[in-house]
Amino acid sequence: MEKQRKNRDVLLVGGGHNGLVCATYLARAGLDVTVVERRGVVGGAAVTEEFHPAFRNSVASYTVSLLQPKVIADLDLHGHGLRVVLRKRNNFLPLPAAEGGGYLLTGAGRTADEVAKFSRRDAERLPAYEARLDAIADVLRALALQPPPNITDGGWWQALPELLRTARLGRRLHALDETLRQELLDLFSISAAEYLDRWFESGPIKALFGFDGIVGNYASPYAPGTAYVLLHHVFGEANGVKGAWGHAIGGMGAITQAMARAAEAAGVEIRTGTGVREVLVEDGRATGVVTETGETLRARAVVANVNPKLLYERLLPATAVPEATRERMRNWRCGSGTFRMNVALSRLPDFSVLPGEGEHLTAGIIIAPSLDYMDRAWRDAREHGWSREPIVEMLVPSTLDDSLAPPGMHVASLFCQHVAPELPDGRSWDDHREEVADLMVATVDRHAPGFAASVLGRQVLSPLDLEREFGLVGGDIFHGALSLNQLFSARPMLGQAGYRGAIPGLYLCGSGTHPGGGVTGAPGHNAAQVVIGDLR
If 0-12 CB within 10 Å is exposed, 13-18 middle and 19+ buried, where does residue 26 land? Predict the structure, then answer.
């Protein structure tokens, strides 16, 4: 087989969503592309699988908002079978008696009325807050689909393209007024709590918005930098509605299966069950890979759709990686504080503060009633290994998609925090996985009595499981924390922001590159343009 493929242009390592996007653009540009994927199915963490007899769900990634409209259109994902429906409500925050009871339910044009239950002043401030974030998010949306300025050594001829890119960035930022430019700077550096304190006085609205600052982020909402993570989660859109959240019919795997069909239609060869043991480096250049079965595959370029730490510390020979890159990867911060569960349910959850069925069950259900609660959860996880009063976001996607469960039954996604990527005192997640899973179910049960009794089966993924199964180092859903020193031109490091790796012939296209994590397709889109330019 290999002798027949001497003219292969690109080997793409990792068949997650960014890899599929990148491969499709490359193939459409006339390049010969092969994608190799270790698992038996493409999609990476964006897959749908049966986890209990007759019950299916999105295994890891679980909701749609950040997927780039340009990627959807360019790959004709709707034409390849993708269908996304919007949540009927955005978020539901049930409050315990200790926090005053009641609930906050946002979306459907009624958010201000809900907020007014707790503070009329906050309800009046809400439109200005949303307009401010929308204006800043528009800039970030535009920047997401282009490489950031890449700070490199070299002569003026090498620096000129980056200077031009910097100038274009400056013009975009100059379009913001002085107040918004200052606000954008603040959002990159301050905490979510500090930013929300500037706008609101009531605890529930700060908790609801503050959750976006710590979701997939192993940090307290009082930690500097969490304001940017909040912003990162609000610059998405679904079905053309800015800031909206949606569900892919058939689960997140429907997205990546549509991408796979688009890739194959463009001529991409996809090989599943083909793990990579090593990236080949010959005469200082990446020239192919050696698979886990010992097969050698060669290409003009190797594109890695994996965490940069995984690439540089496990897949490349240490002698081939420059010392500056090795040092950067030693300090590359990973770990989302995430514990992921899918549960099969005999019936819908029934919340004490809002009993019965309703649109609130289509929302993101957030069990984290205050910023202080989130802060305690983080501190407890650092000391104990997991928060004994954890943060849980639950979705019940079967309220929008009856293909996931048998009639009258349901599935729920539980995205749980905070847990330590590595347990203290040498303990293993293998010994504590089920104990923590019981805790997460009991946490929901306190708000929806009878929930635990309705669980028919469950799938449990600790940070260790997420790393083993999906290559998410430390369970990090973003392939590296979205902190100021790991963003934009520093993602993954200065000099490699342009999707070119540490050695010639090597490229990166995963979430560890700009603009970061989430099911966006943006890194794959951007990396493809660079590879196409270089190979031409």
Answer: buried
Domain check: are 236 and 264 in the same one? no
Q: How is residue 197 annotated by DSSP?
A: H
Structure tokens at 32: 């010969």
Same domain, yes or no: 237 and 162: yes
Per-residue pLDDT tens digits of the chain, which is 536 residues long: 444 455 799 999 999 999 999 999 999 999 999 999 999 999 999 999 999 999 999 999 999 988 999 999 999 999 999 999 999 999 999 999 877 789 999 998 899 999 999 999 999 999 999 999 988 888 888 888 888 888 665 544 454 455 555 556 666 666 778 888 888 889 989 999 999 999 999 999 999 999 999 999 999 999 999 999 999 887 777 788 877 889 999 999 999 999 999 999 999 999 999 999 999 999 999 999 999 999 999 999 999 999 999 999 999 999 999 999 999 999 999 988 999 999 999 999 999 999 999 999 999 999 999 999 999 999 999 999 999 999 999 999 999 999 999 999 999 999 999 999 999 999 999 999 999 999 999 999 999 999 999 999 999 999 999 999 999 999 999 999 999 899 999 999 999 999 999 999 999 999 999 999 999 999 999 999 999 999 98
Task: Verify that 380 and 457 share a domain, yes or no.
Answer: yes
Give the Cα separation of 264 and 501 in Å (integer).
26
Q: Which residues contact 251 (CB under 8 A, 6 or more apart)?
A: 47, 48, 56, 57, 58, 397, 401, 404
For 168, the domain range is 132-199+208-216+226-244
Give the domain CATH number at 263: 3.50.50.60
